Amino acid sequence: MSVILIYRRYFMKRIEVISLDRIGLVSEISNVIRRMNGNIISHTANAGTDENNISVSHFKADVDFESPAENEAVSRRLRRIRNVKQVKITDL
Asked: Is 6 among the domain residues?
């Protein structure tokens, strides 16, 4: 009997998105990550107001990508979402 070991490499990233808050925002961010073959391991989404009393959302997620995803490509797609103001991606 032979044993086959399957090695899976993880490509973990932390993604942070600052946007004007609105209904459906977290769904849109999640869909972009899914379309880029990312699996959200954990996430938080908080809403508050800025100094001008405008509703702002701060989404943060740790994401496992199936293959090496380039930070700029992921960032570019997330910035296309309506009202996204800032995207920050770091390798974990």
From this structure: no
Asked if residue 58 is part of any domain, the answer here is yes
Helix (H) or strand (E) holding 78: helix 71-79
Q: Are 76 and 69 in contact (CB under 8 A)?
A: no
Lowest mean pLDDT among 6-20, 43-57, 59-73: 6-20
- 38 domain-assigned: yes
- Name residue 34's amino acid: R
pTM score, whole prediction: 0.85
Give the helix/strand (H/E) hosting 65. strand 55-65
Domain count, the chain: 1
- pLDDT at position 11: 86
